């Protein structure tokens, strides 16, 4: 789905979803190509496999955040 604009100027990726502190999902504003950050910190196409990995990462990340909040509450009491 590469548009003429993208093949001339390159993709214009914006963050579409934050997964963890290090991993984001990106979407091109022109052709909607989707990318994600892989374990090497590089951009890679967002394949169904990576989507699956990211959803697992997201779940773990949210749980960790919640635990930290819980710990803080206990600490404050
Ligand atoms: Zn594009």
Question: Care to describe what's here?
Answer:
This protein has 77 residues and is an alpha+beta fold. It has one domain (4-76). The protein contains two helices and four strands; from the N terminus they run αββββα. The chain has helices spanning 4-9, 48-76, and strands at 13-18, 24-28, 34-37, 43-45. Strands 1-2-3-4 form a four-stranded antiparallel sheet, with no helix packed on it. It is elongated. The model has no long low-confidence stretch (mean pLDDT 87). Residues 6, 11, 28, 30-31, 33 line the site of zinc ion (ZN).
Number of domains: 1
Helices and strands, in N-to-C order? HEEEEH
User: Which strand order do you get reading across the main beta sheet?
Assistant: 1-2-3-4
Radius of gyration: 17 Å
Beta-strand residue percentage = 15-25%
Question: What brief labels describe this structure?
Answer:
alpha+beta, 2 helices, binds zinc ion, 77 residues, four-stranded antiparallel beta sheet, elongated, single chain
What topology emerges from the helices and strands here?
Blueprint: H1 4-9, E1 13-18, E2 24-28, E3 34-37, E4 43-45, H2 48-76
Antiparallel strand pairs: 1-2, 2-3, 3-4
The structure holds zinc ion.
Describe this structure in a few short sentences.
This protein is of the alpha+beta class.
